[in-house]
Amino acid sequence: MHFDSELGTQRRHQALLQELIAWLGTAVEAPVNVFVVHGESGVAESFSDLVHQKLGWNSRAPKDGDSLVL
Asked: For residue 44, what are the contacts with CB-CB under 8 A and spacing of at least 6?
């Protein structure tokens, strides 16, 4: 049962990622940069990579303590 529950959770997360990418893709213009600042470091980096792969946008997940000029 635990395996089925874990698999279901992974599928829901994957679906959510695809929904977020689809929503971002509705932007009239591509942003200059995307900063992924929510979630654990590894998850944020993975989502940042996905944004770049799927949309071709400059995307990064700043690390704790990084400073950025906007």
From this structure: 36, 37, 38, 61
CA distance 51 to 36: 10
* Every domain of the chain and the residues it spans: 2-60
pLDDT tens series, the chain, 70 aa: 455 666 667 788 888 999 999 999 999 999 999 999 988 888 899 999 999 999 999 999 999 899 988 8
Question: What's the CA gap between 48 and 58, in Å, rounded?
Answer: 9
Q: Report the predicted TM-score, pTM, of the whole model to 2 decimal places.
A: 0.79
